[in-house]
Specification:
Pfam families: DUF455. By secondary structure, the chain is an all-alpha fold. It contains 10 helices and 2 strands; from the N terminus they run H-H-E-H-H-E-H-H-H-H-H-H. Helix 3 runs antiparallel to helix 4. The termini are far apart. The structure holds fe (ii) ion (2 copies).
Length: 272
């Protein structure tokens, strides 16, 4: 392997074109897996990740309240939903490579890198699935505006690995587990089988990403001798600007290693 893992991560982050970004991400993930399987020496290296990952000129990024809400019962509404998911997946590709590059001072077993490389590879596949769905419907990623501010959680936790793990996989990706079954149902009702198949893949693979978050969060708590539950609550209150919203997918959350006492106390936390 000629590039170090962190150089690969930064190369993905600095690639603006989404299809090129995901292609590079998948190629690097494959290289990493092959090298690991062969038992060869792995260079983690050092490389400076950008403050913001490179992005295409489209979609236009708007504040969430300026993104038009479309009725989910219409074909346009379903395209808007696929577009929003594509945007989330693209951000997720960058988030996973970013956690690999961002914290070279924190020592982890190799399994940490295996997990996030795998997650980045999965998200790259997910973006491609959503972009394919859009293209099959005569749209494309970039055709609609998308939410700005998705990188906010990354920026705010750029110096806090535990905060990053708490907010990104354990809050945001866990939220994906809560809402995806409803979206799958909606596409099923519309008899949109291609979208259902794609969303099924995404849903089945996201559990592992939440589990990676939980595993490494607990690993760090154990090493620092911290009580995981109050530590999680403190970090989410510090870095996540919003409420955790029930209903929760308790089954999949449990599968991913997130116990109810992690999330229930964070519901309505700001209400008097
Ligand atoms: Fe995903
Ligand atoms: Fe994910």
């Amino acid at each position: 392997m000629s590039m170090s893992l962190r150089e690969m991560a930064v190369a993905v982050l600095n690639t603006a074109d989404p299809r090129q970004k995901t292609a590079l991400s998948r190629r690097f993930a494959e290289e990493w897996r092959t090298t690991r399987k062969d038992g060869r020496e792995i260079e983690l290296g050092i490389a400076q990740p950008p403050d913001m990952p490179a992005r295409p000129s489209k979609p236009e990024l708007l504040s969430p309240r300026d993104v038009a809400q479309r009725k989910p019962g219409t074909p346009e509404g379903r395209i808007a939903m696929l577009h929003a998911i594509a945007h989330i997946e693209l951000n997720a590709v960058d988030l996973h490579w970013d956690i690999i590059a961002r914290f070279p001072d924190v020592d982890f077993p190799m399994g940490f890198y295996d997990d996030w490389v795998q997650a980045a590879d999965d998200e790259s596949k997910h973006f491609n699935l959503m972009a394919d769905c859009l293209e099959a419907r005569e749209s494309h990623y970039g055709a609609l505006p998308a939410h700005a501010g998705m990188w906010m959680s990354a920026s705010e936790t750029a110096k806090d690995i535990m905060g990053r793990l708490a907010v990104v996989p354990m809050v945001l990706e866990a939220r994906g587990l809560d809402v995806t079954p409803g979206m799958i149902k909606l596409f099923k009702q519309a008899k949109d089988h291609a979208a259902v198949d794609a969303l099924d893949v995404i849903y089945s693979e996201e559990v592992a990403h939440v589990a990676y978050g939980s595993r490494w969060f607990h690993f760090l708590c154990g090493r620092e001798n911290l009580d995981p539950t109050p530590t999680f609550h403190m970090l989410v209150r510090r870095y996540f600007h919003g409420q955790l919203k029930p209903p929760f997918n308790e089954e999949k959350r449990a599968e991913a290693g997130i116990a109810p006492d992690f999330y229930w106390p964070l519901v309505d936390q700001q209400k008097p």
